[in-house]
């Protein structure tokens, strides 16, 4: 997999140190060996034990690791807040601002207005880079009002219009700020870990051949004046046709919602969450979100 990394700061320094260490080691081995090139058909003997001993993960050496743990797929973090609105932000150590161009797909073009203020922060494809990023960005509890982090699979923009989202929907929960200020950072961390660890879609293994990969396209945390919102976006949404395929999809979508509520956020099955400024964990298709709630068919777990 080609590296999607654009990490700055300590994470990139650690990666560079690891790379330099690996190159230096390789140079030493080559000069020690100094072997003649292999003849046709000759087999190179490999000292597997020596190779294994050279592997240093982040657990062995936090600065000079030379092996990273790849994720199932690369992810991109996007961000918007009142500060990014209508502005081309300067290059900073933590960002690849100004904005990178959107894909020239019909979805990319249709979403241009919506995406104007949403800035692409960074892409990553390993566990180590994820932690490098996480340790260097502002936590949701410290963000200004009306800000959003969007963590989406690389190549999918955080917009209804993207091909991967246009037939999908979102599970979301709204949490009053006063009661959740101390929980929201952990909840967002667990939501991101479930996404990048690909555990959000529990029925994936039983999925039909036409839906072989995870239904999750991205996760979002939003800060609003009086509440936080966490969302998980899916590629598809049941339409309530009563057909067997649609019923099966609804089961899979509901399993995502239950996993989100219980395993990620830590609530109990059947626990009532709605109240002033709070909602249940509920699902809405993007098409219904666009209609702004008119005839919306919510699923609640
Ligand atoms: P929001 O920010 O998801 O909802 O969408 P919220 O928090 O209830 O509203 P806010 O005003 O407090 O931010 C707000 C509005 O942004 C929607 O009603 C749409 O008009 C627009 N919008 C949201 N999303 C996710 C999209 C999108 O993907 N594409 C487009 N074109 N507009 C969107």
From TrEMBL:
High-level lineage: Eukaryota, Fungi, Dikarya, Basidiomycota, Agaricomycotina
GO CC terms of this entry: eukaryotic translation initiation factor 4F complex
Keywords: Initiation factor, Protein biosynthesis, RNA-binding, Translation regulation
GO MF entries: RNA 7-methylguanosine cap binding; translation initiation factor activity
GO biological process: regulation of translation
Stored Pfam families: IF4E
Highest taxon of source: Eukaryota
Protein name (record): Eukaryotic translation initiation factor 4E
Chain segments annotated as transmembrane: none
InterPro entries from the UniProt entry: TIF_eIF4e-like (IPR023398), TIF_eIF_4E (IPR001040)
Gene source species: Phlebiopsis gigantea (strain 11061_1 CR5-6) (White-rot fungus)
Family (UniProt): Belongs to the eukaryotic initiation factor 4E family.
